[in-house]
Amino acid sequence: MLSIRSILQAIPKKPTLFIIEGRYQNWIKPLMLMEELGIDRDVICLPGVPAMKTEWYGKIHPQRMVPALVDELHGEKVTLWDSSSIMLYLTQRYDTERKWRGRNLAEDIEIWNWLIFETASLGPTAKYWVSYDLRAEPIPEVTARLHDDLRKQYDTIEARLREPGQSYLALKDRPTIADLSVLLFADSTTSKRMGFQLSEWPAIKTWSEKMYEFEGVRKAFNEKDNWKAVELCE
Q: Does domain 105-214 have CATH number 1.20.1050.10?
């Protein structure tokens, strides 16, 4: 049994990622990156949505969502609570060979553009669509608007990947955290759930299939349903 007090007060010996059973599209991104970089870590799987809404977890993530990450930095405890900020931190801290981040400012700019595209546009729209579509009586006008917005965002990704020599989103020749960020809302699993056939966007389909060929990406995705909630005590 894991102590809430120790979670809040102790400086972690290794980066600790907070996730939840199911609803994997956000928390799996940093986990994929950790697998690719070989980062030793702890993972705390919270016991359901009610655990995210507790006062103690609000001290880690002000919006009471997942993922969140706590780590030790220069003897102090640091907390990050957005998948994009977590991945930026992990690459800055642990990606010494710059495999998943830029190697100069020009590359960084491209990565930031597509990372923010997911954070501010694709991700929120896709998450709202999925949650709204679960309603017993969705409003057709709202459903149509969300569906149209998502198609436009898929078109934006498709156009980027169709540019000459553009094998990945941010950089031409190698994947970055921008690809990991967008992937979970533009793969065959999620697109099908949103009512799309990914074959309509062949460049996205090819790119997403290629992303899952990376060992760490594939491993994190295949094991996403294996995480079970931990028991917590005061």
A: yes
